[in-house]
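User: I'm writing a short report section on ligand binding and want a predicted complex to refer to. Could you take this sequence and zinc ion and write out the structure as tokens? A short remark afterwards would be nice.
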Amino acid sequence: MLAPTSGAIGSTTVKLSAWGWSPFFQQRFEQLGDPSLVPARVVRVDRGAARLVTEAGQRRATGTVRRSSGEDGSDGPSIWAVGDWCAVTPGHEADPVRVEAILPRRSHFLRKAAGRAVGAQLVAANIDLVFVVTDLAADFNTRRLERLMTLTWDGGARPVVVLNKADLCDQLDRRRLQAEAVAAGTSVLVTSALDMQGLDELHATIGAGATVAFIGSSGVGKSALINGLLGRQRLRTGSVRSRDGRGTHTTSSGQLIRLPTGGILVDTPGMREVAMWAGEAALGATFSEIDELAVDCRFGDCTHQSEPGCAVRLAVEQGAVPAARLASFHKLHRELLSEARRRDEHLRRQHERKTYAHYRRCARLKRGMS
Ligand SMILES: Nc1nc2c(ncn2[C@@H]2O[C@H](COP(=O)(O)OP(=O)(O)OP(=O)(O)O)[C@@H](O)[C@H]2O)c(=O)[nH]1
Ligand SMILES: [Zn+2]
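Assistant: Sure. The structure tokens for the complex follow:
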């Protein structure tokens, strides 16, 4: 063995198994065959710089990955993300370490690259379990559940469905059955973050050393559940602002947080966009025949509703595509649009709060000076 799972290199001793180190990664690490390196996990990424946990404590890393570590000598990952396991040069507390290689990932979650860039961006790596959260009130929608579960499987992780806000629901059994019907073998948990109900089951689902994340629409109670798991106010769940009773909050940039009962939480706002992108991809994949026909629509951004020269509606008129099929395409499209709108609203409120805080600070400074 090149690296023990626990040992004292510096003054601190960290048990890496508590951070998710497992035989899978141990084996990949040993394949590198370099006794001068130690394993480390990326616990935080801020503007490209990484914080890693090693057996000797936390270390910083900047710069680039030195070499690839793909299986069979193929190219390995070259840009780190929260959750990545790496092989690094051991360093002293204040010195940054050098990341020699990123170990092959067990799972990875992508989002559309930001701004005008095209392609995918890695949001988080090596997540074992994803809690797919929906609420038992306004958000409940089995097709969305299906979509988020598929996205989780595709990323390489295992989904667990969480039906939150049980306190607001008077048809619990019906909803649970509906969810179980689409969950097909995946566990379905019922919770109320408000009443701290079902949190023990949530805890029990997370094995020691398992890395978990939460996805789901805005306002379903992900932050409230996370606060419940942490036993403290990790993410600020805002006061109720809008008339539909949804709160607001802010999260820090991507990081891993140890849960008090074992397990590691991936806390990154990027997971929100992972779900968004999956929605768009699902639309194309689920309605591939409509996607193909749309190439012949006169307008590139045709919505197949009332535009002239629409090849999709023509196909419906000619009986090549059932009208019900186009109707469900429109329905899913509307759902995705409203999810996007909710997300934009969330970002707008966040921006507003920041600006407001800035003005208050300025005003305080001015008062202090006069
Ligand atoms: N009645 C009830 N309200 C809840 C429950 N869980 C969360 N809420 C409320 O729902 C609102 C949204 O909760 P959040 O935890 O911020 O939701 P979120 O999923 O993190 O939302 P985003 O950050 O926008 O993605 C808040 O006002 C919470 O207090 C619950 O179990 N029951
Ligand atoms: Zn069209």
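A remark for your report: The CA atoms of residues 14 and 55 lie 4 Å apart. Residues 1-10, 236-252 have pLDDT under 50 and may be disordered.
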